[in-house]
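Q: How would the structure tokens look for this protein?
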Amino acid sequence: MSGASTKRILRTTAAAAAAGAIVFAPLAPLAQEATAPLDPITIRIGANAEFTRIEFAGVVGSRSRVRREGDQVIVRIGSTAAPDVSRLKVDPPKGVSKVETRAVPGATELVLTLTEGADARSGSADGAVYLNLYAEAPPAAAAGASPARAVPVVARATSGKVSLAFQWPSPVGAAVFRRGEAVWIVFDTPARLDMSGAAQLGPASDVHWTAGPDHVAVRVAAPAGAPVSAVASGSTWTVSIGGEPVAVEGVQVERDDTGKPVLIARMAGATKAIWLTDPLVGDRFAAVTALAPGKGFAARRKTVDLGLLPTAHGLAVETAAADLAVHADGDLVTLSRPGGLTLSPPSAGLDAAPATAGAPQRARHPGLILTEWADPGHAGFLARHRQLQDAASAEAVAAGEDPRAPVEARFALARFLVGSGLGYEAVGVLNAIVAQAPNMAGEPELRGLRGAARASIGRFEEAQGDFASAAVAGDPASAVWRGYMASARGDHVAARQAFAAGAEAVDLFPKSWRARFGAAHAFSAMETGDLDAARALLAYSFSQDAPAADQLTARLVQARLFELDGQTDRALAVYNAVSRAPLDAVAVPAKLGVVRLSLAKGTMKPVAAAAALESLRWRWRGDATELAVIRQLGQLYLSQGLYREALTALKGAGPGLQRLAGASEIQADLGAAFRMLFLEGGADGLQPVQALGLFYDFRELTPIGADGDEMVRRLARRLVDVDLLDQAAELLKYQVDNRLEGVAKAQVATDLATVYLMDRQPEAALQAIWSSRTTLLPTPLNAERRALEARALTELGRYDHALEVLGSDATPEARDVRAEVLWKQEKWAGAAAIYEARLGDRFKDPAPLTADEEARLIRAGVGYSLGRDAGALARLSRNYRPFIAGARAKSALSIALDTGHGGGPDVGDFAALSASADTFAGWVSTMKADLRRKTGGDRPAAPARPQAAAAAPARPAA
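A: Here is the predicted structure in token form.
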């Protein structure tokens, strides 16, 4: 039979043994069946007219946990082999709409979905966990007695015994226990106690009570040896002090099955945890109340963090820790601390394992690897491995579902595998242990061994989870591993701290690991500026006579030290030597060093360097080396003006590398490059279409806030310069609709309206203005927006509305729009007067007129002519006729300034003059200049570096 077949048979056999059986029976005979032999999981079901009861019994079934999540009741069964619940699925109990099972780590969960109005109650009794299902929720118990209403307390006393009856109007939870020379009685409902019927206390000497917002507590002074008992009858609790001792049971306290460092108390009907202060001692303790019937904790148990007192009913917890948490949830009470309780390892409660001659023994520290673990013995590796594997398999089969079964043979196999460098196989063995016995997840050696195995194969994130466990928090060997992983991630400060914490354990590792730890520690010391410590640690690493691969790792650190010391020739020689190694893990960072130093010396051209780095980028992936290659490549492309290639390379550090410490530097480089291009003018030398394409391809790099908005405005201005108005409007509209509010939104919306008007889209311009209205805008911005709104209305022929918007505004922009409105209304004289006023004393400056000034002058002349204002036309002609010789449109300006002595122009001449005097073109030029000024575009453009593929990306190495 093959080994694979044998394993399948063993697994099948173990699963069948754990699966157990399901027994269905009427509700009444359940008690009779309790004496019959039970399978590991025995599920019994019965029903009456009021509810259906499901019981989970057996070694595994009785440890089930019940919780409620909305309309689902979830029963967690501590077995990975799902029991057969087909009967429940086919014929669900009343009040249950669906029954299903699901696998969870180390267990199986039975999920019962309740119908609307249904309810469920759970608890434990007679060695089984029960679940009562109601098709209709039973009437809720009346709320606890109001504090204003007294609860009578009646005492019946003899010389040796006193019984106190607390006559509550409805059932309440209670906790009763002795603490020193006092008996504490705690109820989970606030009330006033009427103690008039408790004058005679028998052996007790004194009684005091106090009420809190959610409880009432009674302290009865009683002799230390007097027994205490508690019993409930209906809603009355009777507490007896003295008389014959009464045995208590029903509260079980044990470790969490999942291996977490917490304690779980199984107590049916637990209601709440109440913290109290002893008035005599002054310390705090917790009382956990529970509903009837009576159940208590018989033994006294003490751990480092807490002590459990014997109780007649409920649970009592003493602690000196201020952060101990006591949480009651259903039938479970959880005791925990933020860093976990200090408990004995789970292996301490396992059955003793038979001694195996020559098996690898437990190390002094959980995370330690011993040299002798890898010893194959005289028979060789295969025979040794087969011997340990057979012993481990036999132990696993014999263990079944027994949580106390020994695990030593399986640990011996795991130690051998870890010591032999077979990390993957070791992780598999240790995971199988946890799958079969989930509580072993809290075993320090399991955490340490699995963490070491995972770290040795580069699974640092998984190893971090093991070494973060409270079980190995104080282990120096585990601290060494944490330092090793932190160094690999680039977190060198944390690495040095962890190495320092584990210094006492480093020399206990095998030589090869001592060399690796020394090199990693030296690298972190160097990166944190402690070069002397780095040199000493390198000497330690070289002294271990480690394998060649580990020596080459140390040589890389040595080369970097030479580089920092200014000995670049020695560093380059070491890098060149290591780069020829057939191991990519050391050859790639060495080649990167060669490229970096050769570029600095000028012995390698940027084109060749880029090709080499592109090859390295695909040769080694997934750690800090890849980040270093990407960053060097991005900086090289930027220095050559290959902006697209630079951004593409830097963006290549995908999400898988974000966990590394150097990933933030890559993101900073990306942000700085994008800012340099689109905020500091780096892309000004590119063609606008190229700049737009580059921006769109990497637009997710646009920073949030004012800088990002300014980038968009600058790019939009460049698009406007080359009349790509649609693209400019799209950029600005996205900012207005998605990124801006308040004044900033109004400002960019004003630019958007300007672009729309340039593109002859007055409706869109009005929409941009109106949708960004807000109060308390700066006065200049208000004036600009008013003029744009009026211009848009003018374009739509709504002249009166435009003039109404302008009102008494006398700004130059408003006057230009008013003149345009009057011109289109054919109010020639009024328009001409404004055009002349806008020219001011320009006639005193002999410099040639601009195109905009010529248009205003022509319109002024034509307006005066059409308005029959000869005097104004004569004045205008006298002032500006000297400018005709240098004008762009000499004939048009000559006709416009003609005073009519030569016959004057005819109607056709005026039509031609109006066409040549296009004030819209002048306004567009003015707006472009204004946008250029506001976005810094009036400065000289940065020279464009070549964007051609001068250094084409190299093909990935084969």
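Confidence is low (pLDDT under 50) at residues 1-36, 141-148, 940-958.

The first helix runs from residue 3 to 19.

Upvote if useful.
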